[in-house]
């Protein structure tokens, strides 16, 4: 057996094509969906992520601004800048790139963002809406994962889903989305006893812990969907996921590669959320 590869770029391209009519409809009304990204400090990985987001928006004909601040920016000054963006009607989405410098409380910063412009879906109001099954903005990585699962022949309703990792960014929200879609969901972590006992019964396995190749082929149920969210640097210096792709693809039915998998989808769903934010301004009275 050799798993089918769930290509992030291919699925993203399909979604982008579907977005074009919505973008044109907004532009016809004089609205260009606009995202402002705030980057504090000079973290190399964050620089790459922000540039990728910016370039994707520009290529789609949308508006993207990146505001860069030194690492010694005060928490108060950052929150004041966000409050100003909240009041700017030309800005539809606000994203603060994480991680932030240690002297800044990320929860306080995220709470400052207007929930109607929180296109990352991290504000407590949006997290709560997701929990009760009425999401306004779905966090981008879990949103992208669900779109990838839709491309398989696996029926989520009634499926056994195992999520490894319980972060607010990926683990918890994807568990809620899978549960809402009718799956029976188990949440594990890197310290779960007999982890393989859980993973071997997963029709859908989502791994997001940041440990290189911790899930191997002998831990995977045959023909399952394996979603690898991890991005790590292996001993050979090459990028790799939390799943040992070489052994896993011999067992799984579908698998996401690293790179070329979930990461591309995250930025694409940020596009979707920003366009939705712009569309909602048409119905705001």
From TrEMBL:
Query: What UniProt keywords are attached to this protein's entry?
Result: Amino-acid biosynthesis, Histidine biosynthesis, Hydrolase, Methionine biosynthesis, Multifunctional enzyme, NADP, One-carbon metabolism, Oxidoreductase, Purine biosynthesis
Question: What sequence ranges are listed for the domain Tetrahydrofolate dehydrogenase/cyclohydrolase NAD(P)-binding?
Answer: 139-280
One Pfam family from the UniProt entry? Answer: THF_DHG_CYH_C
The GO cellular component terms are: cytosol
Question: What Gene Ontology molecular-function terms does this entry list?
Answer: methenyltetrahydrofolate cyclohydrolase activity; methylenetetrahydrofolate dehydrogenase (NADP+) activity
Set out the biological process GO terms recorded for this chain's protein: L-histidine biosynthetic process; methionine biosynthetic process; purine nucleotide biosynthetic process; tetrahydrofolate interconversion
Domain named Tetrahydrofolate dehydrogenase/cyclohydrolase catalytic: which ranges? 6-120
Q: EC?
A: 1.5.1.5, 3.5.4.9
Database matches in InterPro entries: Aminoacid_DH-like_N_sf, NAD(P)-bd_dom_sf, THF_DH/CycHdrlase, THF_DH/CycHdrlase_cat_dom, THF_DH/CycHdrlase_NAD-bd_dom
* Catalytic reactions on record: (6R)-5,10-methylene-5,6,7,8-tetrahydrofolate + NADP(+) = (6R)-5,10-methenyltetrahydrofolate + NADPH; (6R)-5,10-methenyltetrahydrofolate + H2O = (6R)-10-formyltetrahydrofolate + H(+)
What the entry lists under Gene3D superfamilies is as follows: Leucine Dehydrogenase, chain A, domain 1, NAD(P)-binding Rossmann-like Domain
Q: What does the entry list as the binding residues for NADP(+)?
A: 165-167, 231
This protein's pathway: One-carbon metabolism; tetrahydrofolate interconversion
Protein purpose? Catalyzes the oxidation of 5,10-methylenetetrahydrofolate to 5,10-methenyltetrahydrofolate and then the hydrolysis of 5,10-methenyltetrahydrofolate to 10-formyltetrahydrofolate.
Subunit organization: Homodimer.
* The protein, known as: Bifunctional protein FolD
């Amino acid at each position: 057996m050799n798993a089918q590869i769930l290509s992030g770029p291919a699925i993203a391209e399909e979604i982008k094509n579907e977005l074009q009519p919505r973008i044109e409809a907004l532009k016809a009304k004089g609205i260009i969906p606009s995202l402002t990204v705030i980057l504090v400090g000079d973290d190399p990985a964050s620089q790459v992520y922000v540039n990728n987001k910016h370039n994707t928006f520009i290529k789609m004909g949308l508006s993207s601004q990146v505001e860069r601040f030194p690492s010694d920016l005060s928490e108060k000054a950052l929150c004041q800048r966000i409050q100003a963006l909240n009041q700017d009607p030309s800005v539809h989405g606000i994203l603060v790139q994480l991680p932030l410098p240690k002297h800044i409380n990320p929860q306080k910063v995220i709470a400052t963002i207007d929930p109607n412009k929180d296109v990352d879906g991290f504000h407590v109001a949006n997290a709560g809406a997701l929990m009760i099954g009425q999401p306004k903005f779905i966090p981008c990585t879990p949103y992208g994962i669900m779109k990838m699962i839709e491309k398989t022949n696996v029926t989520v309703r009634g499926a056994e889903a195992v999520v490894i990792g319980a972060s607010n960014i990926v683990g918890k929200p994807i568990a809620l989305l899978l549960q809402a879609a009718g799956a029976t969901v188990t949440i594990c972590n890197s310290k779960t006893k007999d982890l393989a006992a859980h993973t071997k019964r997963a029709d859908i396995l989502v791994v997001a812990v940041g440990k290189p190749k911790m899930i191997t082929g002998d831990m995977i149920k045959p023909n399952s969907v394996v979603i690898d969210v991890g991005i790590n640097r292996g001993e050979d210096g090459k990028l790799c996921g939390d799943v040992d792709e070489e052994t896993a693809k011999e067992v799984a039915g579908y698998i996401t590669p690293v790179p070329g998998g979930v990461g591309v989808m995250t930025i694409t769903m940020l596009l979707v959320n920003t366009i939705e934010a712009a569309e909602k301004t048409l119905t705001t009275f």
